[in-house]
Structures are given as structure tokens and as C-alpha cells.
Amino acid sequence: MSGQWHGWRKWIHHVEGMKAVLFLVDLSRYDHDPEESSSNYIEDAIDMFDTVCNTGEFEGLSKIVFFDTDEFADKLTRAPLENYCPDYSGQTYDSACDYFLNRFLSVNRSESKIQIYTHFTSKMDMQQVKFMLSAIQDILLQIYLRELKLIT
């Protein structure tokens, strides 16, 4: 959806019949200089996720969020997160991951009981890529089994 996101109303009819939305976030882009573009990458991603969670067209779709951490840990040492996110007060990689996880989950105002699945992963690690694909298959299987009322 990147690059096409702001015109989402033009392609929204394609979500008909979908069961889930796969949402990818590159955490290492938290320091994306707002002067290079009109807004910050992470804030744009949070805004997009807000729309995905709280717009009627996406109601009933499970959300699967993958946080790409390939360069994130290394970047935290060079560009402290608190310089870009004044409300962040942690000191570790794990607290930074928790910070972004909570930022994304906090925008969900939907009263729907639809699950939001989250994973921190590296696209450079083939074992993690295999796990990610397996997790997607498992999530979709659970969605179908719930629809058939075979599980709760």
C-alpha cells in the first residue's frame, strides 16, 4: 500500500472477501528526517494503522503487524530514540520495541473483537522469514476455523 495509501478510497473495494490485513513497519526509520518529506515515516505508519483499525471498510479483518528490526538495534546506539520521540523514556532495545508496539496498538479504537497479531522480525534472517510465513498461515487457518465455528 506504500505510495498508494493516501488514495485508499480508490482501491478499498478490493478488500472485499479478505480475511486479514498484513501491515509491515520498518522500525529503523524512526529517525527519518521530516525535512526530507512532509512527515515522519513512523507517524505516517501509525496514521495508516489507525485507518486500518478504525475504518468501517476494514472492520472484521484481522490485522497482522510485522515490525522489521533489521537495523533497529544498531540505529538506537547512533540515533537515540528519545531524540525523535520525546515521550519515550526507556533505555533498551526491548523497551524501544515495547514503545512502538504500544504506540501502534493504542490507536485501535474498534469495538470489534478481531485479533491484532504482532511480531518483531528480521527479513534478513531466513529462519525468521520462514517463521513469519508459518505464522501467517497459522493465523489465517485460525480465522477460517473461527468462521466455521470449529474453534472459539
UniProtKB/TrEMBL annotation:
Record-linked InterPro entries: Fungi_Gprotein_alpha (IPR002975), Gprotein_alpha_su (IPR001019), P-loop_NTPase (IPR027417)
Entry keyword annotation includes DNA damage: no
Signal peptide segment: 1-17
GO BP term, pick one: adenylate cyclase-modulating G protein-coupled receptor signaling pathway
Gene Ontology CC annotation, any one: heterotrimeric G-protein complex
Gene3D superfamilies xrefs: P-loop containing nucleotide triphosphate hydrolases
GO molecular function: G protein-coupled receptor binding; G-protein beta/gamma-subunit complex binding; GTP binding; GTPase activity; metal ion binding
Pfam families xref list: G-alpha
Record's keyword terms, sorted: GTP-binding, Metal-binding, Nucleotide-binding, Signal, Transducer
This protein's name: Uncharacterized protein
